[in-house]
Amino acid sequence: MQGSIDIPLDEVGLWQVKQSAKALIDLYVRRQPERRQLVVSSDLERAMQTAHAFADGIGVPVHADPRLRERDFGEFEGKTAEYLARNYPEDFESWCAGLGGELNHGAESHEHTGTRGMNAVNDWAHECDENTDLFVFSHGALIENTLQVMFGIGEHFPDFISVTTMRNAHWARLYNAGIHVDNRWILSDYNHGPALADTEYWENPSQPLE
After folding, report:
1. What integer is the mean pLDDT of 84-109?
2. Residue 208 pLDDT more than 60?
3. Contact 171/189 with Cβ under 8 angstroms?
4. Are 73 and 170 a contacting pair, CB within 8 Å?
5. Alpha carbon distance 15, 149 (integer Å)
6. What angle do CA 39, 169, 150 make, to 5 degrees?
7. pLDDT computed for residue 97 by the predictor
8. How many CA atoms lie within 13 A of 142 on its CB side?
9. CB 34 within 8 A of CB 109
10. What is the Cα–Cα distance from 156 to 162, expressed in whole angstroms?
11. Closest CA to 130 of 171, 176, 172
12. Could you tell me where the beta strands, DSSP code E, fall in the chain?
């Protein structure tokens, strides 16, 4: 469990973010060369590495924002799943089911995590004009919680995750709703990744690609 611990990407993670950076550039930058890109990232190293894999490829800076850090999992951080299952079986099972068992061990709530993530996205969106695309690089739980709060799911289920876990080096895509109401978004893609991510090669890039 990494959480807010500042752990860099391993070799496979670095390879994955390079594949995703290339896909993002091909899909959303090269096809619209007239647009500019604003890149923002959690200040944790693994997110910054991911952001730079994309931003360095198009020659733009990365702006760090600590509000985009991964959710703080309290005493669960730095522990393996095996350790947690053995020592806190009920709370671990509850956490895995999205029912909040981790809150008994000092974890940040879904609502608090999502609110700070939503505030960061909304603030940076206000720095963009109609010709600018905002790229935000963060972490799985932060992204999930942010969307829950952003779309009002968290109001009804504040300590339950109702969206699937975001895979490594995958992304979500949001559009401004364009309804003359501030901070209203439409979710068009979620847990999207390069084509390679749907193969066994994604988690083991050293194996031969058939």
Report:
1. 93
2. no
3. yes
4. no
5. 31
6. 65
7. 86
8. 27
9. no
10. 11
11. 176
12. 36-41, 62-64, 132-137, 171-176, 185-192
